[in-house]
Amino acid sequence: MTLITRRSLLIAGAGGLVAGCDSIGKSEAGRDLLFKAEAVHKSLQRAITDRNALAREFSETDMSPRFRANGSLFPADPAYRALMRGNFADWRLKVDGLVSRPLNLSLADIRSLPQRVQITRHDCVEGWSAIGKWHGPKLSTLLDLAGLRDSARFLVFHCADTLYGRPYYESIDLIDAFHPQTILAWAMNNRTLPVEHGAPLRLRVERQLGYKHAKYVMRIEAVAAIDAIHGGKGGLWEDIADYEWYAGI
Amino acid sequence: MAEPETPLETPDVIRRHALTTRIWHWITAISVIVLLGSGLMILNAHGQLYWGQYGANYDQPWFRVAWIFEGGRVPGWLTIPSTYNLALARRWHLFFALVLAFALLAFMVASLLNRHFQRDLRVRARELTPAHLAGEVRAHAALRFHDPENPRAYNGLQKLSYVAVIFVLLPLVIFTGLAMSPGMDAAWPWLTEIFGGRQSARSIHFIVAMLLAGFIVVHLALVILAGAWNEVRSMITGKWKVPK
Fold first, then answer.
1. Could you tell me the sign of the dihedral formed by the alpha carbons of B163, B164, B168, B170, in that order?
2. Where are the alpha helices (DSSP H) in B65-197?
3. Mutating which of A10, A18, A35 best tests the B interface, going by the most B Cβ atoms within 10 A?
4. According to CATH, what is the number of the domain B13-238?
5. What is the ipTM of this complex?
6. Residue A8: per-residue pLDDT
7. Contact B62, B55 (CB under 8 A)
8. Does domain A56-241 have CATH number 3.40.50.2020?
9. Contact A216, A80 (CB under 8 A)
10. Number of residue pairs across A and B with CB atoms under 8 Å?
């Protein structure tokens, strides 16, 4: 075998590997196997780490000079636009599903609850990070007010924005729902939450990637399972692009 | 493997690599290549690198993919998958990250038990002297890669590069990868701080990945120069023919 054919073999091998990966990534069996890694990461993380560990909190001097916004920046929904023009005075957050006392809260109601302020790092799945200050009640406060039923396993956040023609939504389990840093932020960087960052209310779930932090939250629904909701994978990005539902990785 | 028999000269075949070493080598070879390809696709989602805790479009990067590739994206022949798909690249990356890390852990335990590390990879002080290293470089240039007195032993440069990969680069790439996980960052905040913040960890992850890619290029070149068939066979069957 000459040197040239050995080299061509190596190059052909590398090309074949990339092509092979593409066909594995398109096959159902290949995807099933690859997608199993999410559950392994989630179980390993939760087995070897403290389930209530807090994300690092920073000081004001550590904050990003300018916090990038992405995803929906200005929801097109006419009902949302009308609420926005009215400075969200008529906006109401619904908390329903598997709860004993469904809630219907105004922004003033939400602001009158005990508040948490946290300066945390926001990590986008794309790879960038920004540090910002968030202000709002803990999700657990609202869940206690509503009286979560024992059968509830997930919280689904229904949003006013759409992406690719589908309503945005996200979901988290009870471990993250009752985590002390999981808040519903109505203020950011000492100002009322801007529209591009999800006004009037967005979820902060600090130990997961940015796409879990649903913006423009209109309704929080307590459910026993997520598979019957929209595409069944627990979130818009999970449904349309196969992002991990557990985004702590 | 069938060897051509010659009546006067029987090829001197020795056992070169233990089974655990061979299994780990191929698992890691596949994992690193998939991780490099999928990692470059993940980089395409935000082709800029920063130092510190944060870094996004309004901040100053130290590296942009656009400096190397037009359009700011690594081309498809280098990425897994070959067309833009961040979600699927993450699935590949996070699957093989587990394979790489646990294979390395198992290999380390096995190689301490079978004394592969102590016997074959222990770098001796005399191998680090400038005179010795210069001699090694001259021997490499003359395509002499083994000591005829002790053909089974790795040469000094080989030892140093394997030690760097096994004990420095692979652990670094694994821990900088963990330091990018928001779940792990909350649980083990020291991990992110060791590297100077999440964006620094991401930058170091990329640099180490490129060093590993550089190692693969040199490693393959030397395998070819040392006799590709004999070297590849030794990593499959364990048997290695001592070059005359």
1. negative
2. 86-113, 116, 130-141, 156-163, 170-178, 182-187, 189-194
3. A18
4. 1.20.950.20
5. 0.92
6. 67
7. no
8. no
9. yes
10. 150
Query: What are residue A235's phi and psi, to 5 degrees?
Result: -175, 160
Pick the residue from chain A with its C-alpha nearest to B83: A22
**Which residues 67-106 of B have a C-beta within 8 angstroms of A?**
77, 79-82, 85-88, 90-92, 94-95, 97-98
Domain ranges of chain B: 13-238
Q: Which of B95, B189, B220 sits opposite A56 (nearest CB)?
A: B189
Tens digit of each residue's pLDDT (9 = 90 or more) over A78-103? 999 999 999 999 999 999 999 999 99
Whether residue A2 is predicted with pLDDT greater than 60 in this model: the reply is: no
How far is the C-alpha of A248 from the C-alpha of B20, rounded, in Å? 33
Q: What angle do CA B79, B174, A56 make, to 5 degrees?
A: 110
CB contact under 8 A, B80 and A37: no
Per the prediction, chain B carries an average pLDDT of 93
Instruction: Please report residues of B whose CB lies closer than 8 A to that of A62.
Output: 53-54
Structure tokens at A141: 């406060």
Q: Taking a C-beta distance cutoff of 8 angstroms, is the pair A200, A214 a contact?
A: no
